[in-house]
Amino acid sequence: MDDLGHALASGGPDLKMLGGGQPARIPEMNAVWRRRIEELIDETGGIDRALTSYDPPCGNPRFLEAVAGLFRRTFGWELSPENIAVTAGGQTAFFFLLNLLAGQMPDGRRKKILLPLVPEYIGYSDQGIDGGLFHAIPPVIEKTGPHEFKYRVDFDRLAITPEIAAICASRPTNPTGNVLTDEEIARLAALAKSHGIPLILDNAYGAPFPGIIFSEAEPFWEPHVILTYSLSKIGLPGARTGIVIGPPEIIRALGSMNAIVGLSNPNIGQQIVLPLVESGEILRLSREVVRPFYQEKCRLARAAASEAFGDGFEWFMHRSEGAIFLWFWFPGLSITSHELYERLKQRGVLVIPGHYFFFGHDQPAWAHRDECIRVSYAMDEAVVRAGLRIIAEEVRRCAPPSLHPAD
Ligand SMILES: Cc1ncc(COP(=O)(O)O)c(C=O)c1O
After folding, report:
1. CB distance 177 to ligand 1 below 6 Å
2. Which ligand 1 atom minimizes the distance to the CA of 91?
3. What is the pLDDT at residue 402?
4. Strand, coil or helix: what is 127?
5. Number of the ligand 1 atom closest to the C-alpha atom of 92
6. Which residue among 92, 98, 127, 174 is best mutated to probe the pocket of ligand 1, counting the most ligand atoms within 8 A of its Cβ?
7. pLDDT tens digit sequence for 330-384
8. Which atom of ligand 1 is nearest to the CA of 242?
9. 87 CB near ligand 1 (under 6 Å)
10. Pairs from 135-142 (Cβ < 8 Å, separation ≥ 24)
11. How big is the CA angle at 145 (ends 143 and 151), to the nearest 5 degrees?
12. Is there an atom of ligand 1 within 6 Å of 209 CB?
């Protein structure tokens, strides 16, 4: 992140920033936020609720009821405000949850979080207060098209040992755009339940909001499941609002952690979206504005990649089922993805080298970790297209020739 920040600061106007997780600025959504801020100013007490009070540690009571109501109505899940906590962004929710459940326990034992599939969200990797939080399982790689693959959970290698405190996955997954299938989720939930541990599902890009999900996956909840949501990818990253749905004892612990770390949460995001959550409008905006916006950007980026990469060398893209990234795999690359990152940086293109996303497992000899990069397609199409052309030029220099030139 530090390196990206320096490159950004010194990069000049031609820099192609395809590395970060910054969501796009969607004009229709920005108009909604502006309208809501005007309404808050005009409404009696509106702006005061948003700015001039400390809310209770779990969040604004009316907002908690609105969230519980939205999920009750939409999915029939039996939720009440006791199942909901707000945090200062999804990132903070994970810092709290991961350290609450795993790490050094009061009785001296160490507990771990099982990641059923890596690559997984880089933002979890350094969150353990005393390190070593994760036990991760490399995936099965399934080739799904001439230049396409999909990761699957390797259930044969998934063992819940006594040190495992919870299972955790992002759905859709950052960095790959993978969406764990309904069957994979049902198996993970059953496994967690049979061992009396929670399953944590990170819906930062997921359904029903922001809804950046292009496959037919069903949202899933049971009383032992912890779901996290965020207002960032629907367009309010600056409001720092995360939402956790979970068992009341976990929610109470999150409230205590909020109070200890920050007294209370930022109110503004909750107040901006409150009527949209109460009316269900947030679901319509996700379905009719946010999802089609990213789906089209994804289509254009994939087409640009196919055009730029062609057939001369070995390359694969993960199947795009959601989120805002393309995940490339260059089998047999003669340099590491980190060296590729450095070469691309010299040419003004910023990506994230893939090895950072493979944390929590000790299989360093697995070449695949060093053959992947993450590319964001949230930027302007012309920037993404130009960046992909440069990536293709650099990879062509160090990738083995295609075994199947006709593919
Ligand atoms: C998978 C995933 N989870 C959580 C987060 C945290 O987002 P925020 O703290 O902005 O809610 C991100 C941000 O990019 C993410 O990609």
Report:
1. no
2. 9
3. 74
4. coil
5. 9
6. 174
7. 999 999 999 999 999 999 999 999 999 999 987 767 899 999 999 999 999 999 9
8. 11
9. no
10. 135/163, 135/164, 135/360, 135/361, 136/358, 136/359, 136/360, 136/361, 137/361, 138/358, 138/361, 138/363, 138/366, 138/368, 141/368
11. 35
12. no
pLDDT band at 312 (very low <50, low <70, confident <90, very high): confident
pLDDT of residue 184: 97
User: SS3 of 374, please?
Assistant: strand
284 phi and psi, to 5 degrees? -65, -45
Q: Give the model confidence (pLDDT) of 64-75 as tens digits.
A: 999 999 999 999
**pLDDT for residue 387:** 98
* Ligand 1 pocket residue status of 172, Cβ below 6 Å: no
Query: How many angstroms separate the Cα of 72 from the Cα of each of 75, 80, 180, 271, 380?
Result: 6, 8, 23, 20, 37
Q: From CA 71, how far away is CA 76, in angstroms rounded? A: 7
CA separation for the pair 256, 254 (Å, rounded): 5
d(CA 367, ligand 1 centre) in Å:
27
pLDDT over 60 at 405, yes or no: no
Q: What is the dihedral of CA 23, 262, 50, 86, to 10 degrees?
A: 60
Tokens encoding 107: 């009785």
- Long-range contact list for 283-287, CB < 8 A, 24+ apart? 283/70, 283/74, 283/208, 283/209, 283/211, 285/28, 285/29, 285/32, 285/209, 285/234, 286/207, 286/208, 286/209, 286/210, 286/211, 286/234, 287/211
Pick the residue whose CA is nearest to atom 14 on ligand 1: 21
Whether 123 lines ligand 1, by a CB cut-off of 6 Å, is yes
